[in-house]
Design goal:
The chain is 37% helix and 12% strand. The protein is of the alpha/beta class. The chain has a five-stranded mixed β-sheet.
Length: 197
């Protein structure tokens, strides 16, 4: 993973609106949905998530996005589509923005998340239950921003992804140990964090 983004003096070429998808059917059902087999075509936004997007767009206080890049899971695609339509933008899928893969826990109850995070706090390299290591998630998420920095200048890019990947990315961008990604406030569904610019 490049350390380009880990220095406070880095001069960003673009602004990034890092957005977690709205409340999803997986959230409503208390399920971990992290595999493409489950997440690409099922478990889109819940009714609550649809309303969140209505509210976010009605109260928009961020810079207007000029580009939309999103994970190809259904819940992130739904979210990106609502924002893109509101601003008259097209969308670009980016598989590196996908949910962290939770291995053997995929499809199981979401009360297993804290068990994974407890291992995360001990090692960014762990793969307990065949979970995707934090370090690998950080590498692919940072690579997306690096690619966007090379591709664009002066844009406001909406990046729609998932809770864990975005938490891990923010830890990496802040130069914090990746083992501490859960020590920052949890990103709520449909929340937006401004980076750069």
């Amino acid at each position: 993973m490049s350390n380009t983004f880990l220095t406070p003096s880095y001069h960003w070429r673009n602004r990034y609106l890092l957005m977690r998808h709205g409340h999803s059917q997986a959230n409503a059902q208390g399920k971990i949905i992290s595999s493409p087999e489950r997440g690409l075509t099922s478990y889109g936004l819940s009714e609550q998530g649809e309303q969140q997007l209505v509210d976010v767009l009605a109260q928009w206080s961020w810079p207007a996005p000029t580009q939309v890049v999103h994970s190809d899971f259904l819940r992130t695609t739904n979210t990106a589509a609502r924002v893109a339509a509101a601003f008259g933008l097209s969308m670009t899928q980016e598989v590196r923005l996908r949910e962290r893969h939770f291995g053997e826990l995929d499809g199981q109850a979401d009360h297993h998340y804290p068990d994974v995070w407890a291992f995360d706090a001990q090692s960014a390299e762990h793969a307990q239950w065949q979970v995707e290591p934090v370090s690998r998630v950080a590498a692919r998420m940072c690579a997306v921003l690096e690619a966007l920095e090379q591709r664009f200048t002066g844009e406001t890019v909406l990046v729609v992804s998932h809770g864990d990947p975005l938490q891990i990315l923010l830890a990496a961008l802040a130069g914090r140990p990746l083992t501490q990604h859960r020590e920052q406030p949890a990103l709520l569904p449909a929340s937006i964090t401004l980076v750069g610019g």
